[in-house]
Design a protein that fits this description.
By secondary structure, the chain is an alpha+beta fold. It has 4 helices and 2 strands, in the order H-H-E-E-H-H. Strands 1-2 form a two-stranded antiparallel sheet. Strand 1 and strand 2 form a beta hairpin. The longest helix has 27 residues.
Length: 81
């Protein structure tokens, strides 16, 4: 886990919590080798997750485009500041 933690700008405990959630979801498997914890992706689970997410993500660009094309009045923009 130490190698993973150094790759991200979050704390080691936060990385550990994320890995625990991924393990509980069946997306990664943890193997212990002495004091080392080795995590492996579960490709089949990731494929299933990808298939489940696809309908949501495929509509995302169109939704973002629609939002970007909505005219915003200057008064609304000032209110957001």
């Amino acid at each position: 886990m130490h190698e993973l933690a150094t790759a991200f700008e979050i704390s080691r405990p936060a990385v550990s919590r994320h890995l625990r959630l991924l393990r509980q979801a069946g997306l990664v498997v943890e193997e212990r080798h002495g004091r080392e914890h080795v995590y492996s992706l579960q490709r089949q689970s990731l494929k299933a997750l990808s298939g489940w997410l696809e309908p949501y993500w495929s509509d995302r660009p169109a939704g973002l485009k629609k939002m970007a094309e909505v005219p915003v009045f200057e008064s609304e923009m000032e209110a957001d500041l």
